[in-house]
Amino acid sequence: MKVLKVLWLSLGMMGVLFAGEKVAVIDVEGMTCPLCTVAVKRSLKKTPGVLKAKVRLNTRRATVRFRDDLNTSKLLEAIEKAGYKGKVLEIKTLPSNDQ
User: Fold this and answer.
1) Is the distance from CB of 27 to CB of 89 less than 8 angstroms?
2) Which of 53, 31, 55 is CA-nearest to residue 44?
3) Distance (Å, whole) CA 60 – CA 47
4) Residues 6+ apart with CB under 8 A from 81
5) What is the DSSP string of 31-61?
6) C-beta of residue 49 within 8 angstroms of C-beta of residue 24
7) Interval 32-83: pLDDT, tens
């Protein structure tokens, strides 16, 4: 039984490792201070499927790296939960590493 559990966990991790990834650039309205960026970043990072988030006050943009099975509407919802409005400006699919 223990071997099956380890095998199942290993296969699950392989799915995460080989899942495609995307990067979205999102315009975030309403950010006025450094704490705003912290709130947006925290909210994005709590979203399942988000791998990395960077939020910049000077450009008022968030750059989010996420699994390709995550819909960008979830990213916008996370930004709204932080109290801001987001608009997706660009989405790029990253090349896979399993070639």
Assistant:
1) yes
2) 53
3) 20
4) 43
5) --SHHHHHHHHHHHHTSTTEEEEEEETTTTE
6) no
7) 999 999 999 999 999 999 999 999 999 999 999 999 999 999 999 999 999 9
